[in-house]
Amino acid sequence: MHVHLPVLPILVPLLFAAVMLLSERRGIVVQRALSAVGLACLLAISIALVAVADEGRITAYLLGDWPARLGIALMVDRLNALMVLTTTLLGAACLLHACGGWDRRAIHFHALFQLQLAGLNGAFLTGDLFNLFVFFEVMLIASYGLLLSGGRGPRMRAGLHYVVFNITASTLFLIALGLLYGLLGTLNMAEMAQRAAQADPANLSLIRAASGILLVVFCAKAALAPLYLWLPNAYARAPAAVAALFAVMTKVGIYAVLRVYTLVFGGLAEGTPAAMLADWAWAWLLPAGAVTLVLATLGVLASSSLRMLVAFLVIASAATLFIAFSLGTTDTLAAGLYYLVHSTFVAAALFLIADLVRRQRGGAGDTLDRNGPLRHNALLGLLFATAAVSVSGMPPLSGFIGKTLLLDAVPATSMAWVWTVILLTGLLTVVALARTASQVFWRAQPWPDTTPVPAPPGRAHVAAAVLLLAYGIAMTAWAAPVLAYAEAAARQLQAPADYVEAAHATRPLLREPSP
User: pLDDT tens, 399-417?
Assistant: First the structure.
């Protein structure tokens, strides 16, 4: 079982999805039970994967023992093991919220949910760019079903925009893959790293053009300016459990940038003309991240609904990560990885809290431009305040730790403007969240006697939000071991030769093709 551990985060959700499709007629209780068992198995696998990765070695796994050019190569290191565990923990909370009743209204919800997890885990674990495209599509197709299921009106329009945008990005992805395969003769990332380092200088312009197309695709997935316009409306219109799960999808694009542009382009090419392949990308991403952070913060200030505000906070967190990773030091990478996990959980929690507020606010819903009544405002206010303190970077929660680590690690040459951007946008975020709390909770009106009182928040709905906030509190209480793991992952990421060596250690992986 230990040998086959890398494939299980993909295989287990796929098997459970198939079983759920075959057992849908047995009722929602059976579907929920299967989903719970599947998540429990996946959680155990994810923890085991992190334990193996934390030993420091990089593991290569070939499905069917096929050579990488013909089959799927999976690679496990500290970074993607952390991403798989983060996705699983997030999925557990989202599933708990959905089982509070929304899953009854969504066709094939539980099967699509498992397919979404399989696509996410596959995107993190694959060692091949073509299979990254395949897992992107698995993830996206499942997300289309989750977003559009049971929807109408505004959600259908936002969903169709989301579908069209992602299909366009996928087309560009295929074009980039075709160009890179023609130039390098492989799409296995370990081999590409070697061949890019030894590339003919005459081909470098074409390789850079192909890598530029690939960068546009990944930045579109990660919602970097100006490619973020699709995200706010789609996430704000999505059902709460789906929007919370989508909080990790922008991180897939960020992960892809981090993996490809530290390993494939420039990772092994120091001192050669090919080193410029990655340098130009990071040089462009740093100011783009800063611009995106400013625009996203202005979007937070201008939001007219609580869900739209959270959607812009997702963009702001992605922009902060681009700044951290573009600075390129071990400490900024480690701080970014810590912040990545924190921001995923707190954004998802805010989506669930926004749904609770909407349900308890009557006709006012989650709008911020008018006052309205609110039931159970003490409970909901406490949940929102905890999430707001964390997402804005105020002490003492994990958001404060993540931003403090990042600011402390900024190189002196970039300190003035990076500190200015992050601190100013943080202050504006605090202002926006304080205004929101005042409008929704402090100024809440008494419930009208003539209006039917809404049902109290479901236990599953509240428990899901509390669980996500508890993850952040745990990251605060055990910040030292989490950060130690993040620092080790950052050092491993900065040693691409170890990744390539691990790929070579598996006999068929880099075998030359037969003449």
Answer: 999 999 999 999 998 899 9
Q: 68 near 128, Cβ under 8 Å?
A: yes
Q: Which residue has the higher pLDDT, 325 or 199?
A: 325
Q: How distant, in Å, are the alpha carbons of 86, 424, 457 from that of 138?
A: 19, 39, 33
Which residues are CB-contacts of 349 (< 8 A; sequence separation ≥ 6)? 93, 244, 383, 387, 465, 468, 469, 472
| pLDDT at res. 280 | 77
Give 136-161 as a DSSP string.
HHHHHHHHHHHHHTT--THHHHHHHH
Tell me the C-alpha distance between 394 and 409, whole Å: 18
- φ, ψ for residue 320, nearest 5 deg: -60, -40
Integer Cα distance of 374 and 363 in angstroms: 10
Residue 70: DSSP 8-state: T
Could you tell me the CA-to-CA distances from 288 to 165, 224, 276 in Å, in that order? Answer: 20, 7, 18
Band (515; pLDDT cuts 50, 70, 90): very low
pLDDT 10s digits, 49-58: 999 999 988 9
Sequence-distant (6+) residues with CB within 8 A of 342 are 390, 398, 399, 401, 402, 472, 475
Are 116 and 135 contacting, i.e. CB atoms less than 8 angstroms apart? no
Quote the CA–CA distance of 456 and 444 in Å, as a whole number.
Answer: 17
Q: What is the DSSP letter of 103?
A: G
Tell me which residue has tokens 């696509």: 119
Residue pair 464/394 in contact (Cβ under 8 Å)? The answer is no
Q: Identify the H or E element spanning 76.
A: strand 73-76
pLDDT range class, residue 150, cuts 50, 70, 90: low
Angle of helix 154-184 relative to helix 189-197, nearest 10 degrees, comes to 50
Rounded alpha-carbon distances, angstroms, from residue 5 to 63, 108, 118, 139, 155: 12, 28, 14, 21, 39
What DSSP assignment string belongs to 434-470?
HHHHIIIIITPBPPPTTSPPPPPPPHHHHHHHHHHHH
pLDDT at position 492, please?
Answer: 93
For residues 261 and 215, the answer to whether their CB atoms sit within 8 Å is yes
Which residues have C-beta within 8 Å of that of residue 232, sequence separation ≥ 6?
299, 308, 311, 312, 315
Render pLDDT for 374-384 as a digit per residue (tens, 0 to 9): 888 889 999 99
- Find tokens 């060596």 and name the residue: 501
